[in-house]
Amino acid sequence: MKVIHVSVECYPVAKVGGLADVVGALPKYQRKLGIDASVVMPWYNKPYVQSHQFEKIAEGGFYQGSQYLTYTVFLHDEANLGFPLYLIKIPGLLDRPEVYEYEDESDQWIAFQHAFLHWIVNSNVRPDVINCHDHHTGLIPFFLKYGNDFRELSTIKTLFTIHNGRYQGWMNWNKGILLPAFDTWRWGLMDWSGAINSLSSAVRCCDAYSTVSEGYLGELTEEATGLENLFISEAYKAHGIVNGIDTDLWDPAIDPLISANYNKVNVVKGKKVNKDIFCDKNGLEKNAFLLTYIGRFAYEKGADILSLFIDDFYTASDHKLNIFILGSGDVEIQQKIERVYEKYKPKVAVFFGYNEALAHEAYAASDFILMPSRVEPCGLNQLYALKYGTIPIVRAIGGLKDTVVDIDQDGGYGFVFQDFNEESVSHTIIRALDYSSKQVNMNRIRKRAMSLDFSWDKSAKKYIDLYNQLLK
């Protein structure tokens, strides 16, 4: 079976969020299971691209509106990725240093999808399944079926994977002139409330769609930024498959980015070594529990509650706790975090931005990781944390609800709260500190966490099973 994953992010080439981690791992694990899986993404002027070799394998061109665009397809088949990677370069559109934040973003993604389909139809590449990821690739299922130039591709099956349904690829219909020629009787399959909506089009036109956890699949029928009825009506082709983690990259026993490797047998000693070094580096006290937040400063991640709960916690509690924050995003949220950092240092340390090595160090050093999300389709941070014996403190939402079991339940290994407010966060952190103050409890819960299997092995097989269903 030949499967092509189409995405605008893929680790290690270009990463903004969890989408990159998934697309950079899932095809690798599928190939281990005998599937011919590869990835197609835009070309970015980033360090990975600059420092590696790529083979030019195809060229072509097409009109986007009145502008003639030329594209080049490059192949990168290095063994360290574990899968063939194809990059599509279009001068002026798909050759930029960043993934997002451009005013003509919709033009970029239209061009990317058109170039992909133009290359496929004019080559001998014929996948059995195209797995499209998020709205940036959401028009591909429509054009496979109704694009005038792509009719010979109409038998290819499509799976559309939703990593975050809040971002839907809205475009005014004045962008319609940029689209490849299509059967105009079918225009309504791209329309939602008088505008082009790439995500809604994908859900209606794909052969099946999936979300990155079962919990998030159910939540989309209740809150999906206006698409709730769509997800209810199309539920017959919906599947929830929880994300996994790439244990080649995320395993404290072999991780080259942490100070001392360890496993569940010597986790107590290993985490102490990492914690001591980490605290020295970041000006934190070694003999206090360490709680970490890693992620975007975004409303959906609940990052706006960080400054509130820090004030609430240190005002009301005498527990010894250090807090480390690694992230970037909303300027106002960052300014508030800066203020509590100045107020409570050296109990609080921050790093504004993203640093992959520092994230690994933080997982290895921390006792707890906090994820107070308003929306969390799956979440990977809690899975990384569990692998490193770092206990998750999470809100019961989406994939967090699916993957973290509260300590008060049988077999529990985390701390879960329901309400989104600083009091709930502080109360749950205090509950975690009280429980973990007994070393025997902390040792037990760490080993239980590290014994869990959230690798991609099981989830990759579920994707393959779904592909086989489509092909039957």
UniProtKB/TrEMBL annotation:
The keyword Membrane does not apply. The keyword Metal-binding does not apply. It comes from the Bacteria. The lineage of its organism: Bacteria, Pseudomonadati, Bacteroidota, Sphingobacteriia, Sphingobacteriales. Keywords: Glycogen biosynthesis, Glycosyltransferase, Transferase. Its EC number is 2.4.1.21. Pathway: Glycan biosynthesis; glycogen biosynthesis. It is an enzyme of class 2 (transferase). Synthesizes alpha-1,4-glucan chains using ADP-glucose. ADP-alpha-D-glucose binds at residue 15. Residues 280-444 form the Glycosyl transferase family domain. Residues 2-230 form the Starch synthase catalytic domain. This is Glycogen synthase. It catalyses: [(1->4)-alpha-D-glucosyl](n) + ADP-alpha-D-glucose = [(1->4)-alpha-D-glucosyl](n+1) + ADP + H(+). Belongs to the glycosyltransferase 1 family. Bacterial/plant glycogen synthase subfamily. It comes from Sphingobacterium bovistauri. SUPFAM superfamilies: UDP-Glycosyltransferase/glycogen phosphorylase.
